Amino acid sequence: MRLLRLPDFRTFALLGIAVLCLVSMVAPFRCAAQAGTTLEERKMPMKFGWVACQPNCRGWVSAVGIVTTDTPKEFDDFARGRELAGATVVLDSSGGSVNDSIALGRHFRELGMLTTVGVSVLSHVPQGDRASVSPEAYCESMCVFLLLSGKTRYVPGPAHVRVHQIWMGDRADDAKTASYTAQDLTIVERDVGRLAKYTFDMGGAGDLLSIALSVPPWDDLHELSPAELRLTNLVTTDRLAEVLPQTGRQTERSVPVAEVTAKPMQDRFGSNATDTEAAQPPVKSTKTAEALVPTGSVAVTAPAQ
């Protein structure tokens, strides 16, 4: 299975940023971090990093790249020995494996983590290194469901949150004319069901599934508008300080925070409340994955589940 990312105008914009970085003497480390993270790290399997900003703030977790089969374990290894309860995860991702994203999102929620979209940036200033978050970032496909896992969720205005259907990853090149068996359809429908349960467990709205599942893999991803971010319950606050209190230099309009409490599944589908994801036996990875993912990065083939 593989993911395809198609070039668009963002590639040329980012090349422009890189050129400006070469000719500018202002905040060179900031420029390098923005261009490098967007053009290189987002094409690779997801990596986690701790961005420290002591003594004035706690810091946050940077999560950049696509989710693979190894990602949940790599997060477990990263989290070991760290106090991540209630920490913020800053996402910049094109998506990845459906089932592994669900597993990772559940781990985020167990830790009571907060989520947002952005690129972590380190700048050199006379006072020393300074960490900040650039809001110009992408959270696409299954990354959107990682965003949903946060107890409090914030999306900055310049960020791009985009959705589409899950699909058979090995047939994403020509989804319209590819052949599908009854077993293939069973795999897709099973994973859609798991994704629906996860969405409601995380406090998301059915509108998120409705919008995502209406976008076929041969169409461009649908970018959620500010109104849709609210409708789907992906955004629970418009206050940056609720997820990144250390970045007080930026200001956003304030609205009350809507802390999310997952609604019991029996209230939505009439299912048995004991039928939780955790109670189900381990599921082997399937071929259900992301399809066409036009992100603005250079064209690249990357593994997925």
Structure description:
The structure is a single chain. By secondary structure, the chain is an alpha/beta fold. It is built from nine helices and 14 strands. The strands form five sheets. A five-stranded mixed beta sheet has the order 2-3-4-5-9, with helices on one face. Strands 8-10-12 form a three-stranded mixed beta sheet. The chain has a two-stranded antiparallel ribbon with strand order 1-14. Strand 2 and strand 3 form a beta hairpin. Helix 4 packs parallel to helix 5 and helix 4 packs parallel to helix 6. The longest helix is centred in the middle third of the chain and has 20 residues.
Notable traits:
five-stranded mixed β-sheet; alpha/beta; disordered N terminus; 305 residues; three-stranded mixed β-sheet
The rough form would be described as globular
Percentage of β-strand residues:
15-25%
How many helices does DSSP assign? 9
| Strand count | 14
Question: Given the helix and strand composition, which structural class is it?
Answer: alpha/beta
What is the secondary structure topology, with strand pairs?
Elements: E1 2-4, H1 9-23, H2 28-39, E2 47-51, E3 60-64, H3 71-79, E4 88-92, H4 98-110, E5 114-117, E6 119-125, E7 128-134, E8 138-140, H5 142-148, E9 153-154, E10 160-163, E11 167-168, H6 182-201, H7 206-212, E12 222-223, H8 226-231, H9 266-269, E13 288-289, E14 301-303
Parallel strand pairs: 3-4, 4-5, 5-9, 8-10
Antiparallel strand pairs: 1-14, 2-3, 6-7, 10-12, 11-13
Helix pairs in contact: 1-2, 4-5, 4-6
